[in-house]
Amino acid sequence: MSLLPSSTGGAPENALPVFSAALLMLLSVAVHATDIPYEWTNVRIGGGGFVSGLVFDPTTEGVAYARTDVGGAYRWNASSSRWIALTDWVDADHANLMGIDAVALDPSDTRRLYLVAGTYTRPGVGNAAVLRSADRGDHFDIVPLPFPMGGNELGRGNGERLAVDPHDGAVLLLGSRNAGLWRSADHGEHWAEVAAFPAQAKTATATSGARTQPVGIAFVTFDPSSRAVYAGISTRDTSVFRSDDGGRTWAAVPGQPTGLRPTHMHPMGKRFVLTYGDEPGPDQMHDGAVIAFDPATSRWTDITPLARTQSPSGHGWGDVAVDQAHPDVLVASTFAHYTPRDLLFRSTDGGAHWTEVFAHSAFDHQDARWTVDHTPHWMASVAVDPFDPDHVLFVTGYGIWASRDMRALDRGLGVHWWFQDHGLEETVPLGLVSPADGAHLVSAVGDLDGFRHDDLDTAPPQLAGPPRYQNAEDIDVAGQLQTVMVRSGRIRGKANVARAAVSRDGGVTWRALVNEPGEGEGAGSVAMSADGKRIAWLPLHARHVFVTDDEGKHWQHGDELPGASHVLANRISANVFYADGPGHAWVSTDGGLTFAPVGGSFGARIAADQHPRAHLAVAPDRSDELWWVSPAKGLAVGDATGQRLDVPADITAADSMGFGRAAPGAERATMYLAGKRGSVRGLFRSTDHGAHWQRINDDAHQFGAVGHVTGDPRIFGRVYFATGGRGIFYGEPKPITDRSP
Question: Residue 596 burial by CB count (10 A; 0-12/13-18/19+): exposed, middle or buried?
């Protein structure tokens, strides 16, 4: 996949240039041959994250698009029954573009695809961009915006915030989160603010816990049967506005309901249907409604499937899908209806009567067996295939469910659902180990605990419970006894269960530690001694490393370690542990009871590097070798005495580094690294202890933020890594016959 900058048309007054300096730098990197061509494949889990929006191509059968909150965008390929990732070219320097806050197609030319990319609105992460494609996402131009977006923030399931005028495909309207409404008249190449749009769009926010985030404009919807266009502001006051001149001037729609926030608006023949919630979701929603609006009469009609017998009703409404060929056919989803689960309703008479779908449904969990432990929730988007009304999709906080027989409900029969997530991987792994025995890969995964992969191409069940962690945060394997593992995680609602667990059979079974140390907030960092007998635990916000020899019955701790964030074990010497933090590294030679700072020139190098993600990596084949891995300063290698052994000069940034099986004839483990060699960002491999590095990925395979890199100790050349929203990948050298010149 390449990035092809466009240069069509002149810029209107006060419009934005197409490329920012940073993005121009990204695009101007010289194309060079891949050092070692690799094949990249997702380790199969299936889904695993919040798919925040779905859009079917209305003119081309078998094409649909999915946007995700942290994992980029996908296109459905009906011929292969797989989702195709469209944004894997985004590199770690621009990983903020992996959160997609809106998707739009040009109804007059659906080869034109637009994505609004920007994950967070908080300071320091950078502004958003519009990604434009003229070939359904095979190639993109990047158009920077002067404001951020929030693909992983409150209201991310609302939408769509971007729309193309069906009467003039050159005109687009974009609803921002904190900068008002923006308009383009040249296919998204240049943008200017619509000054006439109500100012409250810039101040519409939502709060969840301690977080207050901008939500702004929840959707923009063109009326395909007139010149009107609507936009909804995420506010409980007057929220829906209409323009009759292509989006230049705006007025509030009369008679509209207040007291709830609009989240979606869809054409329903000559009418519209809207969903509402008291909050924008997805964190919470306690009330809501489904409302039909008739522009001809200015009449608003409550068609909520469940009667609102109390206020608040206890849940909201996620979305309503309309069968555009039969606009009286609707499918509506609840939101935050947690008792017992979220629900789906279908109407064939425009919302006058509804049938609850899940009461007559069966779910097939065979393709992703872990989904049997999860019920539908965060159903923020529902879609009906315009070419097949039996094909209905709805999103969840962990993937997409689909039916091919929805109309069976009309005949009194059951509806069947399958997990339509082949090719779509959106987990955020927080730890990986590749043991020398047993399964090739065991993972700790955000939101889904973790997985043991005997077969990398098959989605396994989650790690066997109990315990079952809501969020696994770290995992380690004993250096010399690789069937022994420890993992940590967060668990909700079970305060008496320790938030770390041990396995002594390669991750097949697990048992929680007997007790917690009593300091910190559980989870955090864990390490297993090389002989598998001692566990070291640095709980979240703890000031000490705690150790146990009896799986948590008794705990000991030594020195206070201010600023420590991770604990690690030596891979050969059972009594040696390490701890690190920004600008700090400590070593213990008495089993984690006392720690001394690493001194000497190596310690000075570490102390000079305060990058929050700089960390230690421990060599698996030497008992006295440590690596300092820094996104700011690259690599340095030394020992626990502080002697600085070497600094690979050509590695200028190192995000993560791991070790795998040595190359044939080589003495040392193969090293794999995510970072930069010179000015080139990528994934690299060294078979000579870091003296030389060869790139193993290319510009089309960057995968956003990459971390937890580790090689396979049994298979030379195989490397695993985690991403910030594209799941786990494994790579292997391409066969010689497949390598292009």
Answer: exposed
Cβ neighbors of 138 (< 8 A, separation 6 or more) are 1
- Inter-residue contact 620 to 604 (CB < 8 Å): no
Within a 10 A sphere around the Cβ of 352, how many other Cβ atoms? 11
> For the domain that residue 353 is a member of, what is the CATH number?
2.130.10.10
Which uninterrupted H or E stretch holds 426? none
3-class DSSP state for residue 600?
Answer: helix
Strands 449-453 and 73-77 turn out to be unpaired
118 within some domain:
yes
- Select from 484, 603, 584 the least CA-distant residue to 538: 584
Q: Which two tokens stand for residue 613?
A: 């993600």
Tell me the two tokens of residue 243. 């323009």
Beta bridge partners of 453: 441
Tokens 């027989």, residue located: 405
Query: Annotated catalytic residue: which of 88, 342, 447, 699?
Result: 447
Angstrom distance (rounded) from CA 649 to CA 690: 10
Q: Which regions of 187-342 does DSSP assign to beta strands (E)?
A: 192-193, 205-208, 211-214, 217-222, 229-233, 240-243, 251-252, 261-268, 271-277, 288-294, 299-302, 316-322, 330-335
Q: What is the CA radius of gyration of the chain?
A: 27
Question: Does residue 629 lie in a domain region?
Answer: no
**Residue 375 class from Cβ within 10 Å (0-12 exposed, 13-18 middle, 19+ buried)?**
middle
Q: Rounded to an integer, what distance in angstroms lies between the CA atom of residue 355 and that of residue 346? A: 5
* 492, part of any domain: yes
Q: What is the spatial order of strands in the sheet that 644-646 belongs to?
A: 615-618, 626-630, 634-638, 644-646
Amino acid at residue number 380:
A
Cα–Cα distance for residue pair 472/462, rounded to 1 Å = 11
For the sheet containing 330-335, what is the strand order? 316-322, 330-335, 344-347, 355-356
Q: Compute the residue count for the chain.
A: 741
Give the CA distances from residue 549 to residues 206, 546, 575, in Å, rounded to whole numbers and listed in that order.
Answer: 47, 11, 12
Is position 447 annotated as part of the catalytic site? yes
Query: Which domain, by its residues, includes 163?
Result: 46-419
Beta-carbon contacts of 473 under 8 Å, excluding residues fewer than 6 positions away, are 430, 431, 444, 446, 488, 489, 490, 523, 524, 525
Q: What is the mean pLDDT of residues 340-354?
A: 96
Which of 30-44, 118-132, 451-465 has the least mean pLDDT? 30-44
Q: Quick one: average pLDDT of 443-467?
A: 95
Instruction: Give the model confidence (pLDDT) of 229-259 as tens digits.
Output: 999 999 999 999 999 998 999 999 999 999 9
- Report which secondary-structure segment, H or E, holds 396: strand 388-396
SS3 assignment, position 449: strand
Residues 6+ apart with CB under 8 A from 496: none
- Predicted pLDDT of residue 307: 87
The contacts of residue 309 (CB under 8 Å, 6+ apart) are none
Q: Is residue 684 part of a domain?
A: no
pLDDT recorded at residue 6: 30
Say if residue 339 is in the same domain as residue 470: no
Q: Which of 57, 69, 639, 699 is catalytic?
A: 69
Domain check: are 253 and 390 in the same one?
yes
Q: What is the pLDDT of residues 520-545, one digit of tens each?
A: 988 999 999 999 999 999 999 999 99
Structure-model confidence comparison of residues 245 and 495, the more confident one: 245
Helix (H) or strand (E) holding 166: none
Euclidean distance between CA atoms 374 and 202, whole angstroms: 37
Q: Are residues 354 and 463 in the same domain?
A: no
Q: CA angle at residue 705 from 217 to 78, to 5 degrees? A: 70
Cβ atoms of 242 and 251 within 8 Å: the answer is yes
- Identify whether 69 is a catalytic site residue: yes
Burial class of residue 618 (count of CB atoms within 10 Å of its CB; 0-12, 13-18, 19+): buried
